What we know:
Largest sheet: 6 strands, mixed
Helix content: 10-25%
Order of helices and strands: HEEHEEEEEHEEEEE
CATH topology: tt1808, chain A
Structural class: alpha+beta
Number of helices: 3
Number of strands: 12
Amino acid sequence: MTTATRKMTAEEFLELPVQDSPSRREELVHGELIVSPIPFSLHANVLAELTSILRSHVRARDLGIVLPEIDIIFEDDDVRFPDIAYYGKDRAHLVKAKRISAMPDLAVEILSTTRPSYDRIEKFKHYQQHQIPFYWIVDPEEQTIEAWKLENGRYADAGRAAKEELAALPPFPDLSLPLKSLWWPV
Length: 186
C-alpha cells in the first residue's frame, strides 16, 4: 500500500492557525511542514541581545530595518524563519505588515543545540541559492560568530570573531559588536 501526501503551498502554510503551544517553530521547506522545538534560553539570550544591538545601530544611522523571527516567503512552497533579518534602507519598503517575500540583505541564524547542521548546511545553501548578500551564523555554545558575503553567487568567508572580541562584520563595518554581551550568562 502506498500513501500519497500533498505538499503545502506558502499561502496554505501562512493560513494555518497560530499554534497555542509556544514550544515549537514551523517552517515550510519545499512544501513540507518542518516542526522544531523552541530553542533553549542560551539561544533566546543571544537573539534578544543581538537584535537590540543591531536595531540600535541601524536606527541611529537610519540604515533600514531589523526584524527578529519573521516568516519570509522564498518560493511558492518555501517559507523560512530566520532568527534575524535585516533590510537596508533602499529595500525596507519591501517589508510588508504581512506576507514578506523580499529577500533580506542579511539573514542571521543562531545555532540550535538540537539541529546545528540545519543552519550550517541546509540554510547556508538555501540563503546562498536565494542570493541573500550576507549571512551570519552565531554559535552560543562555542561563543563564535561567522559572517559570509555573497561573491559571484557563492558565500565567501567575510569574518569571524569569538568569546570577548569586538566584531566588525559586513554589512555593518562601523559597528563594533561586543560579543561578550551575547553570551549566557551575561
